[in-house]
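Page header: ASSEMBLY MODEL / two components / 512 residues total.
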Amino acid sequence: MESLSNKKKVLDQKPLTLMERMYLPAIFKGMGITFSHLFKKTATIRYPEVEREFSTNFRGMHSLKRDENGKERCTACGLCALSCPAEAITMIAAERKPEEKDLYREEKYAATYEINMLRCIFCGLCEEACPKEAIYLDGPIVPADYLRKDFIYGKDKLVEEPLVMKK
Amino acid sequence: MDTGFIIEKFILVAVIFGISLVVAMYSTYAERKVAAFLQDRLGPDRAGPFGILQPLADGVKMFMKEEIIPTAANKFLFIAGPGLALLCACIGTAVIPWGSPMEIGGKLVPLQVADINVGVLYIFGVVSLGVYGVMIGGWASNNKYSLLSAIRAASQNISYEIAMGLSIIALLLMTNTLSLKTIVEQQHGFNWNAWYQPLGFLIFMICSFAETNRAPFDLPECETELIGGYHTEYSSMKLGFYLFAEYINMFVSSAVMATLYFGGYNYPGMDYMATLLGPTWAPLFGVAILFLKIVCFIFFFMWVRWTIPRFRYDQLMNLGWKVLIPLAIANIIVTGIVIAFVEKF
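Prediction written out in full:
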């Protein structure tokens, strides 16, 4: 039968020729190749001192955003948690008290908001699901740690710094 | 035997011992750096500037590690193995002439520990003793991988020692002496033996790769098949001794190659330098030249290691018995004929 794809190759092991059996020509050729690599640029990035440049749509650590007046945007609707394929997000909602008006934008807010960074797959679906533009994956790489419990990031690590008022 | 002689030799031995340990230490660093550069990496660069303190860090690590002696191992031989390997590696440096006699305070001091008239044979003896460290360690571990590795090391050394010895015989036909000092003195200036014995040198070099268990002949420690081979069961500084012995062996065989074939401390224009620097400093310059040659050979060892894949065991034996030995014998015959011809006419 003729092959349809024409990709079949018959491999046969020919006995080595004298030049091949001498090994030396092939060895010199290989040594030339490795020697030329002495002068090539190294691919290493010295990590803690130098960081690789990320593309603009890189997805890193999450941050919970504030609005232009420094109020937290999150209303604890739970859409991010619902959209999360890894089930990394949990939150507890609470009602805003009148004196907390400067802290939260709407009447409902997230009293606790936790992301398990070991579960998170950095897909960005929470970012897409959020109707309030409150969560973005615009941070750096999540750093390493020793204990599992330390990878559950609460609001202390996630909420971005409050705006500093200009004097 | 005056005290001056003993003190002089003692200082020389201490200096050479220290230098060969330092060279071996920095060979481990150089090996990793060379490997890295040949693979477009950086290599160790965290300990000190450019990582030059890395060997010290490795040494400390080796000493700090837990020492494990398997219960089924023969304890005495298990400990004797690495010690023997290191000892045999070190004593090879005794007969190598490091430089021409140096004048210190009106006295000529030879820069060689012992000028014995069978220097070449001594080197061979020491090199073949070196395999006992590997064999004893491999056998005493009571581990099948180690044992296989010990068998491999022994058969490899025996096979390649024959070709090595035969390649040296062709050289000895030319030099008419076994004393390393005389052999070096005959290669004054640029009259190096490698120009007359290129084939002999090639065979000698290939055999010294096999004798030092370096790639592409590192079958005894082949990680993929034998899990590290004879040092599978070793930990802590005993493992360090084995690794160290390998690098000292490399240093010694580089020194022997430089001495026998590449003129030792001789270099073109040495007579001019001798008048320029005087009888005290010119020999030291020669020592520096010898070390330059040794460093080049060590680099070559590493360069080969990171280029050529390991031989299969049958290929290794075929190369040794069916190629190198006949070639070495042919080399002896040709050399003999040429010498007889030159003497007659």
